[in-house]
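Researcher: Here's my situation. A collaborator sent me these components and asked whether they could plausibly form a single complex. I don't have experimental data yet, so a predicted model of the whole assembly would be a useful starting point for our discussion.
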Amino acid sequence: MAGTALRGRLTWQQATVTGLVAETSNTRSIVFDLPDWPGHRAGQHVDVRLTAEDGYQAERSYSIASAPEDPHVVLTVERLDDGEVSPYLVDELRIGDEVELRGPVGGHFVWESTCDSPVLLVAGGSGVVPFRSMLRHHAAAGSTVPMRLLYSARSRETLIYADEFTRLGGRGGIDIRVTLTRENPGTWPGERGRIDRDFLTRTGLPPAEEPLVYVCGPTAFVETVANTLVDLGHGPGRIRTERFGGTGTP
Amino acid sequence: MTTFDGNAIAGTLNAVFGGEMTTASGTCASCGATELLAQLRVYRDAPGVVARCEHCDAILMVIVEKRGIACVDVSGFAALEEPTQL
């Protein structure tokens, strides 16, 4: 039938922007209305495609920030100064605009509330985005498995979802630990410093509990954390990673 | 140059192979290591996508799309298995 997507076939569809939330000075959440959204799993991605007037196209993959139970698909995008797509999404996009979107995609970096293992989430910077989906999914599904998030950011100003994490923390097995790496002493009562071996030993879940571990952030961050977790005794097969590039140290 | 991993090309792989592929495992023809496609090192600054082995850096896969036609070179793999549902 003309105009009808083949079942299961991944196709581009028009998504309308229905909401914009400034999370930090260079990060914002975009709420989309997608008439034919098939639903997604926590941790999955979508591809966003922009087409210039001359026909030039650029596409990028973004983690979905909303839970499967949420009524709208939300992406949280950080502006990369040399980016082709993110500056437009963060600075230019307005409510009512349309962009092309395809998804959901990805089956590796996902968490289902039916899984009964404890969960350790380790985020560097905007690597926390897929974890908001997982935390919201945990809360919405009424899961009681322990889910602990270790979240490293440079400073208070770069923290995203701070208010929501304050509300979610301590409820139904959710435990959120934020550490700031560049904040001035005396201005932050919580953890300070990078997520290193000492921090993971002190605040992570013990390997003996065989948690499912998810690590997301800049490439160097993810590789350092994953290697340290293996050194501490976590099974490599229990660790799922997602590296989104960049050289920054959150 | 920015490095991503196979998660970032889930959509491209899905469009090319017709289904979710990041949970499929591939064996490197160069060093013999087997990894999920989600774990490949991915470079997308080139005109197209280049995926390299996480262990030996050999080129495993190149995907270039032009005018709606995708050219896919998977000759760096010795084997490419069916995806597993996680």
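Model: Some features of this prediction you could bring to your collaborator: The first helix of chain A runs from residue 86 to 92. The radius of gyration of chain A is 18 Å.
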